[in-house]
Design brief:
single chain, alpha+beta, nine-stranded antiparallel beta sheet, four-stranded antiparallel beta sheet, 19 helices, 15 strands, about 50% helix, elongated
Length: about 550
């Protein structure tokens, strides 16, 4: 049986191209009907990005955060223009990083700076309208002659509200929107169906204690006039109209207590104050200029505690770098000597603290330093009742000891690498010239090691300056400084003091003051780091 053989011309001729628009079968399926798979993947990714971008834009617009909304629109348009065009190729790779930089760095820093110039904090977290509503909800009394009418608990887009029947019409509303007519009623009892709202079943309310508390605390205004009162319920089945003894005059910007005639006027400090200086508990957010920065230096109740915290912060940052670096350098020199046996095993043991989670180490040492049953007192001090966590200086020593134990392995590794990179001929020449071990360390080893490790030491100083984890987990900044505001403690550093002032830990929140202190800490760390980096250039002369 003979097999036909193609001629060389036939072998060299390319296969005929398919008709235009026909399906092709290129290697790996890279094209389909003339459309590249890469284009389809890019289109799908951009579709997802646009979906999330539009969702963020609509959410910001709904919350009336116009600055965030505008920034989201600009970023979305930039992404579409950059990735749908063939120009600006470098921006295709830079845009994601730039976007995250703007969102997580520039925006956060700018927003922190904005808060630093406001009175944002406990009692000043909303607008003036919200402050008025909160004030009027205090001291409420049931309106005389107000009937008790059946009501239903309703829900709309996650917002609870009330629905009642009045004059044959169903009226529904929430805390943010007054009662409005939504349709005709089919009876005189509590409505079972409310147009535009979902009726919450009675059994769901009975079985959910949190929901019960929300229902009892709910106030639904009767009308747009805040002085007209609001509907309240105590059992979730019936309600009445309650009215506050306080009356709001929008034109005069005053709230009058009808029970005693006291008039509270709106001030530029974001609160309502009477002539004798009494203020209502709820205020609103306003710009206060540099008041928060001035309070840090002029408030008599804060000057001494903050000065103690600042001094300890600098001491903590310096000792947290110098002591473990010295330990790491000495251990690196010792265990770099070839005469030491088992060097690899011993080096592994020395770096174990560095591999252990810092917050777990802080918690373990907190128990070990306990005055009553801690192993430190039992094993090393014969069971003496040494109050490591209650005495200010002992607590500082203990937390510093924990931090040194956690950080010296890092410097041990760094210094080991730097020492192994030193020129051996320089050390040999120094030894021939009669230089001893200490002289070699002071004149050769230390300067050359600092050339390689100085940037790391500077970054470690900045990290220690803001090392919140150890301070918080070990002793929560305690023991407390007597008479200090915001629960400041003897081992608090500036970053943990900011935590206390912000009220996140359960105290009185003062976000404006905390933001102002954050700005100052950022400036201090930035200046120290910049000056230190300039000084490190002088170390290069030793090379």
């Amino acid at each position: 049986m003979s097999v036909p053989v193609e001629s060389p011309a036939e072998q060299a001729s390319p296969p005929p191209s398919p008709p235009r628009g026909a399906r092709t079968t290129e290697p790996h399926g890279r094209r389909w009907n003339g459309i590249g798979w890469g284009f389809l993947v890019k289109l799908a990714i951009l579709g997802v990005i646009n979906a999330f971008g539009l969702m963020g834009i609509f959410a910001a617009a709904q919350a009336q955060s116009w600055l965030i909304c505008g920034a989201a629109v600009v970023l979305l348009l930039a992404a579409d223009i950059i990735y749908f065009t063939k120009r600006a190729l470098p921006l295709k790779y830079l845009l994601p990083g730039l976007a995250f930089l703007l969102i997580f760095q520039v925006f956060i820093f700018g927003y922190t700076a904005y808060i630093a110039f406001t009175n944002y904090g406990a009692g000043h977290v909303g607008s003036q309208e919200q402050a008025v509503q909160a004030a009027l909800s205090q001291g409420e009394r049931r309106v005389e002659g107000s009937p008790t009418f059946p009501l239903a608990i309703v829900e709309q887009n996650g917002t609870l509200g009330f629905a009642i029947v009045e004059d044959g019409q169903i009226k529904a509303g929430s805390a943010e929107s007054p009662l409005q007519t939504v349709g005709p009623a089919s009876g005189t009892g509590a409505p079972t169906e409310v147009p535009g709202w979902n009726v919450v079943p009675r059994n769901d309310i009975i079985g959910d204690q949190t929901l019960q508390q929300e229902v009892v605390a709910l106030r639904v205004p009767v009308s747009d006039d805040p002085n007209a009162g609001s509907v309240r319920t105590n059992d979730g089945t019936s309600g009445s109209i309650y009215r506050s003894t306080l009356e709001w005059d929008a034109a005069a910007q005053t709230i009058t207590d009808t029970a005693n005639g006291t008039v509270y006027r709106a001030t530029d400090r974001g609160n309502f104050a009477s002539e004798d200086g009494t203020t209502l508990p709820t205020g609103w957010t306003v710009h206060v200029g540099f008041d928060n920065f001035l309070r840090l230096f002029t408030d008599s109740s804060m000057i001494q505690p903050l000065a103690m915290v600042t001094a300890w912060t600098f001491a903590w940052a310096l000792l947290s770098v110098i002591v473990p670096f010295a330990m790491g350098l000495v251990l690196a020199i010792i265990y770099n000597d070839e005469r030491v046996r088992g060097r690899k095993f011993l080096r592994t043991l020395f770096i174990l603290p560095y591999a252990f989670p810092a917050f777990m180490s802080a918690l373990l040492f907190r128990g070990m330093f306990n005055a009553e049953f801690g192993v430190i007192n039992d094993f090393f001090f014969g069971g003496a009742q040494i109050d490591w966590l209650g005495d200010p200086w002992l607590a500082r020593f203990a937390v510093l000891f924990v931090n040194v134990w956690l950080t010296y392995p890092y410097y041990f590794l760094v210094c080991t690498g730097a020492i192994q990179a030193l020129p051996s001929d320089a050390l040999e020449a120094a030894s021939i010239d009669g230089a001893g071990r200490f002289r070699q360390l002071r004149s050769i080893i230390l300067p050359l090691v600092l050339v390689a490790t100085a940037p790391l030491l500077i970054s470690s100083f900045a990290f220690s300056f803001n090392n919140f984890t150890i301070i918080y987990m070990f002793n929560d900044g305690g023991p407390a400084i007597p008479g200090a505001p915001y629960a400041l403690g003897a081992t608090d550093i500036l970053i943990s003091a900011i935590w206390d002032i912000s009220g996140v830990n359960g105290g009185k929140a003062d976000y404006g003051l905390a933001s102002a202190l954050s700005i100052l800490v950022f400036i201090v760390v930035g200046l120290i780091s910049a000056l230190a980096f300039r000084q490190t250039k002088k170390l290069e002369e030793y090379q």
